[in-house]
Design brief:
Radius of gyration: 26 Å
Domain FAD-dependent urate hydroxylase HpyO/Asp monooxygenase CreE-like FAD/NAD(P)-binding: 11-197
Strand content: 15-25%
Protein name: FAD/NAD(P)-binding protein
Largest sheet: 7 strands, mixed
Organism: Streptomyces bluensis
Helix content: 25-40%
Number of strands: 22
Strand order of the largest sheet: 20-21-7-1-2-3-22
Pfam families: NAD_binding_9
Structural class: alpha/beta
Distance between the termini: 45 Å
InterPro entries: HpyO/CreE_NAD-binding, L-asp_N-monooxygenase_NS-form
Number of helices: 18
């Protein structure tokens, strides 16, 4: 009689950075929580190579870059991480890249990327450089291979390069994960959904614009991931309206200019001049704010790191929750958030640039700590202690830089916005203004404290809709998720060359049936209308379970086996489009059970676990790493407790431990 127990089986749908981070935490926690008396088989299901996944796949234009410096990207826990499992530090992207030029030690398992262009980039990559997404793809591939190498012998991983189409099975029994390319489903004890950022079919507004474009032979692109967008139909010289001035626009700008053969010449003073190829369309860009996202800083702190959190940490959140009443983010929470960000800003200013302050830091912070952000006394304190208005933090001016401004002609506005962009880039590249980096670090700290507040259910439905998912998400991205400075310098050159035109704030898009054109207007240049034969929605698809392109999530939603997050109170109902999960452990809320499904977990972008990005800046106690660790530990405990109820599925995946340890590579694996 065979007494060997059947393997425990975990199926992870998605194999990108989020799944990779989870696997790294499983490997870290396995010595404590997996005793090796039973095999654990982990199946990864993703048509794209594990590690990078779809968004960070190698097969995308080399022009596309990250908006983070190489030294600011890590997939590993560190001394700041408050996790129950073991902290296992690892190299940042910059530290990992240094091994290929001999500037740093080798990191096992060592292997040079197969793409010679990526290898050449890594050999010259500096910590303050903004890497290509292909370089990040190579880093994520290595992180995945390292996680594989650290798993104990009783844990195996198989990759199925296909799409998961459905999950079935009772809450008290094995789950069946159905795959697109095989008749027999994978049988699992537990299933983790980690598909990452997903596309969606166009909503009604975009369908109307698409229908207009078809009627008149025009071009329309709904929200799309830049690397996936087909721009080939845009003709040289064609006028294009782009709604959106964030990172998606920056990517599209690069693809439609350099991507079509244009080049930049650098003058003796460092000014860029764009040399067109003649194949570029003419781009007209506007948005709600009417200005591009703020440039990323390219310097380090000049003073000591601010001790965060200080004014908006766990104790502050506890205090808000203890009030036992509905909360409004702008009224009740934002003043504490603003004070925290201000603390980061002024901590750096007083420590790194004391010559621009009027009295010592201890005196300032003693007064600062006892005042509210919007108190008159706070304004007086800052005005006295910080003589130069350029060194003061004014959120309202930052948030709406074009408010109250109107220009008589489009040309007058072009001049104004070029000056605004040039000043922003100069400031973000000048360490004399390193207080901006102190504010940025505090922004990250604030962002990491919000999930617990949101999970409490105390924010009103209207505040979640308008303030959290609306204003705060946009404001955070505007301040903290902007492009590298060189991209904005390129934007200036394109503006001077007449390739890019600025439309202004609060743009309104309409259609003109008579001329068969899309139109754009803005209060910034009153009375002026721009006509174009193409319209691009230059932002990413929003979350939508009803419209998601993912067949598994769409099917579960239609069956009523998962739920969209709905926040309702007597005054408002907010449907976020996000997948509702249990806040503490990520278990999928199943409406048919009126409770979390005990066999299904979801992590990452499609879920309502807000503020959980897959990778992070070092030493920021990243929320994603905390969640990955908690879920990995819960999974190992649950899998250890399962009975031998899952019959072994036919093995047709790729045994990755053998694949990587033998150094083998196949055509679908990203090097």
């Amino acid at each position: 009689m065979n007494s060997t127990p059947s393997p425990a089986v975990l199926v992870v749908v998605g194999a990108g950075p989020r799944a990779t981070g989870l696997l790294e935490r499983i490997a870290a926690n396995a010595p404590e929580l997996w005793d090796g008396s039973r095999q654990l088989c982990i199946h990864l299901v993703d048509p794209h190579a594990p590690g990078p996944g779809r968004i960070w796949r190698h097969e995308q234009p080399a022009l596309l870059r990250m908006n983070s410096m190489a030294e600011d990207v890590t997939m590993f826990t560190d001394e700041s991480s408050t996790v129950d499992g073991p902290v296992q530090p690892g190299p940042s992207l910059a530290e990992w890249a240094a091994q290929f030029s001999g500037r740093g030690p080798h990191h096992a398992p060592y292997a040079e990327p197969a793409d010679p262009e990526v290898l050449a980039e890594l050999r010259t990559l500096d910590g303050s450089d903004f890497p290509t997404r292909r370089a990040q793809s190579a880093y994520l591939d290595w992180v995945f291979r390292r996680a594989l190498a650290q798993l104990p012998p009783t844990v195996t991983v198989e990759w199925h390069p296909t799409t998961a189409t459905a999950v079935t099975g009772p809450p008290d029994g094995p789950q069946q994960v159905h795959l697109a390319d095989r008749a027999t489903a994978l049988t699992a004890d537990l299933v983790v959904l980690a598909q990452g950022h997903l596309g969606s079919t166009p909503a009604a507004e975009y369908r109307d614009h698409a229908a207009f474009a078809r009627r008149h032979g025009r071009f329309h692109l709904p929200p799309e991931f830049s690397a996936d967008a087909d721009l080939s139909a845009l003709r040289p010289g064609e006028h294009v309206i782009l709604r959106g001035f964030g990172l998606a626009f920056i990517d599209l700008m690069a693809l439609l200019t350099e991507g079509r053969g244009g080049t930049y010449r650098t003058g003796a003073d460092g000014t860029l001049t764009y040399l067109p190829s003649g194949r570029e369309p003419v781009l007209h860009v506007g948005s709600r704010r009417g200005v591009p996202y703020h440039s990323k800083t390219r310097y380090r702190l000049q003073g000591p790191r601010p001790p965060l959190p200080r004014h908006f940490g766990p104790e502050a959140v506890d205090g808000l929750l203890a009030e036992g009443r509905p909360l409004d983010l702008r009224r009740d929470v934002w003043p504490l958030m603003a004070k925290e960000i201000g603390f980061g800003h002024y901590h750096e200013l007083f420590h790194a640039h004391p010559e621009r302050t009027a009295f010592p830091w201890p005196d300032f912070v003693a007064a600062y700590d006892r005042l509210g952000w919007y108190d008159d006394e706070m304004a007086a304190l800052v005005a006295t202690a910080v003589p130069d208005p350029a060194d003061r933090l004014d959120f309202e001016a930052l948030d709406h830089p074009l408010d109250g401004l109107a220009f008589p002609t489009p040309d007058a506005f072009q001049d104004h916005l070029r000056d605004h962009i040039a000043q922003d880039v100069t400031r973000r590249e000048n360490p004399e203004f390193s207080a901006d980096l102190g504010a940025f670090l505090a922004l990250l700290s604030v962002y990491g404290q919000l999930p617990r507040l949101v999970a409490s259910g105390r924010l009103t439905a209207r505040s979640v809709a308008d303030d959290l998912d609306g204003w705060w998400h946009g404001f955070f991205s505007f301040l903290a998720s902007g492009p590298p400075g060189f991209r904005l310098r390129q934007l200036l050159a394109l503006s001077q060359a007449g390739i890019v035109h600025f439309l202004g704030a609060g743009i309104r898009i309409a259609t003109d049936e008579t001329s068969g054109t899309f139109t754009a207007t803005s209060t910034t240049v009153s009375g002026h209308t721009t006509h174009a034969t193409a319209l691009i929605e230059a932002y990413l698809p929003g979350p939508s379970l009803a419209h998601t392109e993912d067949p598994l999530l769409r099917g579960l939603y239609q069956e009523g086996a998962l739920a969209e997050e709905v926040i309702a109170d007597p005054t408002h109902t907010h449907r976020s489009g996000l997948l509702a999960v249990s806040p503490a452990d990520g278990y999928v809320i199943d409406p048919s059970l009126d409770s979390p499904h005990p066999r299904r977990i979801a992590l990452g972008a499609p879920t309502n676990s807000r503020a959980v990005a897959a990778f992070a800046r070092p030493r920021t106690n990243a929320p994603a790493f905390r969640q990955n660790d908690a879920v990995a530990r819960a999974l190992l405990r649950a899998l250890r407790a399962t009975e031998a109820e899952t019959a072994t599925s036919p093995v047709d995946g790729r045994p990755l431990r053998a694949l990587f340890t033998e150094g083998a590579q196949d055509e679908e694996h990203v090097p």
